[in-house]
Fold these 4 entries.
Entry 1:
Amino acid sequence: MAEIHAGAIGRIADHNRNAMQRTAVSYIVAIVDAVIITLAAVTSGFVYHQVMFGYMDQFAKNAAVGLVFAAGFVLLMVARGCYRPSALVFFSKQVVYILTSIFLLGTFLSLIVFLFGASETFSRGAIAIFAGTSTVGVLMTRLAWARYIREAMTRGTVQKKRILLIRAGHAVEESYGGDLDHLGLEVVRILDLDAVHRPEDLLANVRVAMSHKVSDIYVMTEGISRSSLEASIKQLRTLPVPVHFVLDPFISQFAALPGTTFGDTTIVELQRAPLNLVERYIKRGFDIAVASLALLAFAPLMMFVAIAVKLDSRGPVFFRQKRQGFNNEPFEILKFRSMTVMESEGAVTQAVRDDIRITRVGKFIRSTSVDELPQFWNVLFGDMSVVGPRPHALSQEDHYDQLIARYAFRRHVKPGITGWAQINGHRGATPTVSSMEDRLEHDLWYMHHWSLWLDIRITLRTFGAMFDRSAAF
């Protein structure tokens, strides 16, 4: 019988008995969301009518609206699995779920109110304040939850999911240890398939592991032969526990691609055709709409930043630099000045952490990406898109053109303020060729899989990524 042993990243910890249950965390977060939304409805109705008309609106009516909206919101989030601790730790994804749920629910309830002729009962101003305060309230608490749960699972104050890991003789600890920890998984046993000589031995070993209260089984498919994988599936299907397959890294990049069927075979689209005329108009319309709204919404912030930049150090408020755009056409990018230098053409030195050229105000606006806000003017002028590959200085473009064969292909679309690479951890400087190649792979993936929904997802997740200041300086 194959040996079952504890992995280096696995712990059979007594503190798990006293840790907060994962389901309790989900219930608490859902209740907090419902309370925030209900309080926002009541408070918004009271404040709006008191300020505008000098009287208090009906408490019962506003409370009912809040409770209905809260119930619908919680149900939508539960249906998407957003209250699982493993989902709560990813704030940028939560932003997408929260905003889309509020939009869909708000649209549905507005339609119901209109159809029943009750639109005059509700004040538009109160509804607008309610929508804004409830959204901001849920997002702010979700940011706090993401940080708390990640730290709590590391400390053991929130219970981790105890799993059995099945693999084929490779170092799972080195490849996946960090990811498993962030997902709130505790590996209590590892089963090496290379040591299993008969299919029936697998089930016997798994049953032994189940005595340690394992709740899920994770199978690392990398390095497992097809025959061994098929035999394992057949045996594991007899167990009344969830079984998860962790795909080979090479295969996983194709798993989410759009696909069709060819008989009984699935076909994935590895590379799509360039945007047609209709798609280009759709993308341009999205750019104009988002840029216009952003410039209006961020106008007060941009005015404050402009004053701060001017008072903080000598020099202009805005930084202008030549960049290569769509079809190699140069354009002048616009940013808030964050350095004491104004390198525009010729050799440009990338910023590094603790760069002495960065001003005091510049350090903050760079880490939060506030310095990029003026680029929405570039979007309105048509030089840039909201979503696309980030443009680099001309000297950097020439440098990487020589080193990376496919680099020039990224200029077949308009450069963007944000992109698929930026929300997937490739934000900030690219000190090595390897780091630029990683960014390029994400840029090319975006170009080959563009859709309006993808642009919306990236834009929403960028808001969440702005709170992660670890990769920007």
Note: The two ends are 54 Å apart (CA to CA).
Entry 2:
Amino acid sequence: MQKCIKLCKEIGISLNQEGEPCLGEIALDWFCDVAHLPRQSVDDLPENQCQDFREGKAKHFVEVTPNCKLIRKY
């Protein structure tokens, strides 16, 4: 979780930017993803999730807000 928060702070993200709000791999089978808090239906759309998670290449993710606050780990 801390790696995702750190990566978020280093990169910064906007949910309004074009493309998926996936910050990248943080450990084997773990990716860092950005979502709204409270979650919105758009956060559950496959095109808004990390590509490796959608394709089954990664099994887990940590979600943070655009302000790098932890939402959940899955």
Note: The mean pLDDT is 86.
Entry 3:
Amino acid sequence: MKQITIYEYIATNVPSDAHFVINKYGGGNYTRAKSVKELEGQLKDFVKKNGKQGLLALAEIHPDKELISLVDTKSNFNDSEKLPQFANATGDSVITNGDKEQLTYSKMLILGGFLLLGIALITKK
């Protein structure tokens, strides 16, 4: 199954609502998109410029927002709380400084394991 971004999903399923939202909150800077790909790009730019507020605006028009609200038990977060990892709309993980340190440590452990395995294989012959 092909994975799509939230931008493509919204651009495909609610293009009129998407255009209305990005022009309402984006200051009317976006022309009417001629394709789904163009609208997808505009949505990405909108979120890049407006951050969390842009994501929340898109969440309001998401075609499955009723279904998501049934599952989501903590949708009202404030600025001081850490966003959940799935909150990044670009598909990238949200990584904090503490996570970066742990990720670096994990990479070092994996590299060390490969080095030990390589040395073991070389000395075995």
Note: Residues 97-124 form the longest helix (28 residues).
Entry 4:
Amino acid sequence: MPATELDAAKKAVERILENVRNYNWQELGIEKVTMSAGVAGTVPNKSVTELIEMADKALYQAKRSGKDRCVAYGGEG
């Protein structure tokens, strides 16, 4: 999400999470679906690879802290 502030990106992902939570998965024969996500903002002098690693760390923090949530790199739940 180029040119998007970290808080705005996290809010967008949280809207996606809410839609996943509220979707009628039973129509498809699926009991429940959850999603975890990590987001990271650009940091001066960081490569794209480092940015992806930051988002990946945030994703695993989301999973460790109970799943079905979004965590911003360096931020709280």
Note: The first strand starts at residue 37 and ends at 39.
